[in-house]
Each structure stands twice: as structure tokens, then as C-alpha cells.
């Protein structure tokens, strides 16, 4: 059982606490919030201590890991501080906002022989796992292009001064909220990105740094990804990979935070279209438990550090392309 502290008690931090309460692999023993009194009742209900001091968590010998649900610009230094204190780290996406920062964070993790995991729960959805296995088997031939969409309107309920909506924390509008998930899946298929072109506009909401994103990502070993992320329309989620012998697509039935299942569709050249229905499953908890397993010496965490770094390198280029309107080469 891995004892963890959850850092950041906003809506997502509390969601993770609730999910971890159903786990036999990790346990929340402490939480951190700038004003702990506001979540004192929640902490009592879930039987953990809530404090305001992150450094006190890092000094606590009974805590083996931290779960970071904090603003994106804080992630790098919080990861480094945790690693230097000998703690394993599960960090919500994105790990960092720049390539240089994520490299510093990963270096600190490796120097201290800690485990690093990231909140890319889409990687752990059963149909996505099957999609990845099918692509890797070669059954559909060479991957050519990805089309993916992750849109939602949950952010419209947030106050406009919420950190998740600020230019500093969400510099390419929907990219850090939802687009990063489908970018990560594309990296899982194609590897490191080579160049990006991205456009973000404010079209259907009061979200001043943009609610509608379109990005074209080209990859070093070939292939493209066409990514769409919108924050001003009801939820839709789709991830499709087109290959030279067929194609495969996963469609979500509901938002990953409250899954209702998925539909996987596959076509092989010369054969009829086939579909498979998947029941709901908590990929968020599966991801957290994979972190716990890796931290305690079990199976390695399945998202590699090379992929984590590639995600952020591509994200940084997308942010720059959205700002300038130009094609940007990925570091």
C-alpha cells in the first residue's frame, strides 16, 4: 500500500481522493490546500489530514508519494522538490509547459531513483489499449494519419478568473485541458513530433484565451495527427487511426471522469466493418494504481519518460504556433 499526499484540493484533486478510496494499492494520508479550512469536512469524511504546507509533506517519512493537482506552471519545481525528498510523483497533465522544464523534472526523478507518472488516463482505457495492441501488431499495416477530438463544456461553469482559464496556465486555450490527452495518444502511435501548425480562436464562449483549437502535428517517423479540442460544446471524444490496410476508431459514450463505456470500430481492407462495445471502467484509477505498482517495484509504469518528454516538446511547439500563427519545428 503506497501512502500518498494529494497536493491541490480543487474539483479534480477531490475526484482523485474519492477514487483512491476504492483502491487496495494506494491510500491518501494527507492533503495540501492553501486554505485547508475550506476542505476540512471533506478531509474528515475521507480520513486524512489537510494542511497548507507542501514542504511539510516532503519531510514526512510516512508519505512515499505525492499526487500533484496544482497549476501547470508549478509542476516542474514541485516534481523536482519531491524527487529530491525521495518521493515518487504522480503529476496531472501537462507535466510542464516547456521542453527544458520537463527534462529538468525527469532528470531529478532519475537522479533520485523515483517513479514518475502522469495523468494521461486515456492511455488506460480498455478500448485504447486494444487499439494500441492492434496498431502494434501490424494487422492494419502502416499508420498513416490520426484524427482525434476531445471536446467538452465543463470549463464554462468555472469562474473566469479560475487558474485553468488563464493565459499563463492555459496558453493555447483548450490544449492543456483536453487536447494534451489526444496529443499523448498520437505520440504513443507515432513517437516524437517534428513540426506543428495550430490555430486557437474564441468563437462560442467568454473564454478569452480561446475555446476552439485545431492543430496539425507531423511526426519524425512519418504520419500526421489532426487534433481538435473545443471548450464551448457538449462532450465528444473520438480517436481514429488510419493505416494502409484498414482503420480503427474509439468513440467515448461519456466524459472520462464519469465513463459510460466506449465503442470500437475497425475495418480491414476487403472485410466488413466490425464494432465492439466496452462497459464503463475507471481509467483514472487504473492509472493511479499503475503508478503505485511501479513505485513499489512492480511492473514499470507504461508511459515511458521518452514519451512524456515528447508530449511536452510538442505541446510547447503548439503553444508557440498558436501564438504566432506560424509552423513551428519541435525541439
UniProtKB/TrEMBL annotation:
Spans traversing the lipid bilayer: none
Domain GFO/IDH/MocA-like oxidoreductase span(s) in chain numbering? 131-249
Output the InterPro entries linked to this UniProt entry. Answer: Gfo/Idh/MocA-like_OxRdtase_N, GFO_IDH_MocA-like_dom, NAD(P)-bd_dom_sf
**GO MF term set:** nucleotide binding; oxidoreductase activity
Alphabetized UniProt keyword annotations: Oxidoreductase
Does the record carry Ubl conjugation as a key word?
A: no
User: What is the protein named?
Assistant: Gfo/Idh/MocA-like oxidoreductase N-terminal domain-containing protein
Q: Which residues form the Gfo/Idh/MocA-like oxidoreductase N-terminal domain?
A: 2-120
Amino acid at each position: 500500500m503506497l501512502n500518498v499526499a494529494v497536493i491541490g484540493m480543487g474539483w479534480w484533486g477531490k475526484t482523485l481522493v474519492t477514487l483512491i478510496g476504492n483502491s487496495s494499492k494506494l491510500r491518501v494520508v494527507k492533503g495540501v490546500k492553501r486554505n485547508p479550512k475550506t476542505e476540512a469536512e471533506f478531509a474528515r469524511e475521507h480520513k486524512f489530514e489537510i494542511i497548507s504546507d507542501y514542504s511539510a509533506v516532503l519531510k514526512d517519512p510516512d508519505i512515499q508519494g505525492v499526487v500533484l493537482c496544482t497549476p501547470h506552471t508549478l509542476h516542474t519545481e514541485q516534481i523536482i522538490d519531491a524527487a529530491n525528498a525521495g518521493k515518487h510523483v504522480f503529476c496531472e497533465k501537462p507535466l510542464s509547459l516547456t521542453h527544458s522544464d520537463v527534462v529538468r523534472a525527469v532528470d531529478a526523478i532519475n537522479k533520485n531513483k523515483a517513479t514518475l507518472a502522469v495523468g494521461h488516463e486515456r492511455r488506460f482505457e480498455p478500448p485504447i489499449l486494444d487499439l494500441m495492441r492492434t496498431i502494434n501488431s501490424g494487422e492494419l499495416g502502416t499508420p498513416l494519419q490520426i484524427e482525434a477530438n476531445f471536446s467538452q463544456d465543463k470549463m464554462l461553469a468555472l469562474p473566469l478568473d479560475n487558474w485553468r482559464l488563464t493565459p499563463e496556465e492555459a496558453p493555447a486555450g483548450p490544449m492543456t485541458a483536453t487536447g494534451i490527452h489526444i496529443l499523448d495518444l498520437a505520440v504513443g502511435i507515432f513517437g516524437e513530433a517534428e513540426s506543428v501548425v495550430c490555430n486557437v480562436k474564441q468563437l462560442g464562449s467568454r473564454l478569452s484565451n480561446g475555446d476552439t483549437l485545431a492543430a496539425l502535428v507531423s511526426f519524425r517517423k512519418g504520419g500526421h495527427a489532426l487534433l481538435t479540442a473545443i471548450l464551448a460544446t457538449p462532450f465528444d471524444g473520438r480517436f481514429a487511426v488510419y493505416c494502409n490496410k484498414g482503420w480503427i476508431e474509439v468513440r467515448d459514450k461519456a466524459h472520462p471522469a464519469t465513463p459510460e463505456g466506449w465503442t470500437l470500430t475497425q475495418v480491414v481492407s476487403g472485410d466488413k466493418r466490425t464494432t465492439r462495445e466496452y462497459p464503463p471502467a475507471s481509467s483514472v484509477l487504473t492509472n493511479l494504481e499503475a503508478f503505485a505498482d511501479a513505485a513499489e517495484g512492480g511492473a514499470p509504469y507504461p508511459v515511458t519518460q521518452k514519451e512524456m518528454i515528447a508530449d511536452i516538446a510538442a505541446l510547447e511547439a503548439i503553444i508557440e504556433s498558436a501564438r504566432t500563427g506560424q509552423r513551428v519545428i519541435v525541439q
